[in-house]
Design brief:
Layout (H helix, E strand, L loop, with lengths): L2 H24 L3 H30 L3 E2 L11 E7 L14 E8 L2 E4 L2 H10 L11 E8 L12
Antiparallel strand pairs: 1-5, 2-3, 2-5, 3-4
Helix pairs in contact: 1-2
């Protein structure tokens, strides 16, 4: 069963239970009504959680650069490899690493707030340009930053 199928199924079960609750209410079976209504509400909540899970999975999926590139200058997480490191970094040759970078004007740049400004303004940032030995093999959007929950009175 796929996630989409599970979401659809939970929504169908919730709808069926809501209809059954309505029938129980019409027949003045209030105790049964409360049980069924509670179950329907739980099924709706489960469907919502499954939708959130689906959204999280989509946000944290690596996208090969061969399939699609990110929008210009938008910072993204990247997986990169160095195919020709200097001798004292020989042990990192062709090993994947994760970092944050920008894609702009057909090139990759290491992430920094200053780099973002320079790319937006001038389309380049010499200090942050990745060398030819670095290959970015995949990317994914950055996660949304943490926000604390504000309790309402």
């Amino acid at each position: 069963m796929t996630l989409d199928e599970a979401i659809k199924h939970r929504e169908e079960v919730a709808k069926q239970q809501e209809e059954m609750a309505w029938e129980a209410e019409l027949q003045e079976e209030y105790e049964e009504y409360e049980k069924i209504k509670k179950y329907a509400k739980e099924q709706r909540q489960l469907a919502e959680w499954l939708k959130e899970l689906k959204q999280l999975k989509e946000q944290t999926r690596w996208i090969p650069v061969s399939k699609r590139l990110p929008k210009d200058t938008k910072p993204v997480n990247i997986t990169w490899v160095n195919h020709n490191p200097v001798s004292y970094y020989a042990d990192i040759k062709d090993k994947p690493f994760v970092a944050t970078g920008h894609y702009c004007n057909g090139k990759w740049w290491w992430y920094s707030a200053i780099c973002q400004d320079l790319l937006d303004e001038y389309g380049e940032s010499e200090a942050d340009e990745m060398s030819d030995e670095i290959e970015v093999i995949a990317w994914m959007p950055l996660l949304k930053p943490y926000q604390s929950e504000v309790k309402k009175c």
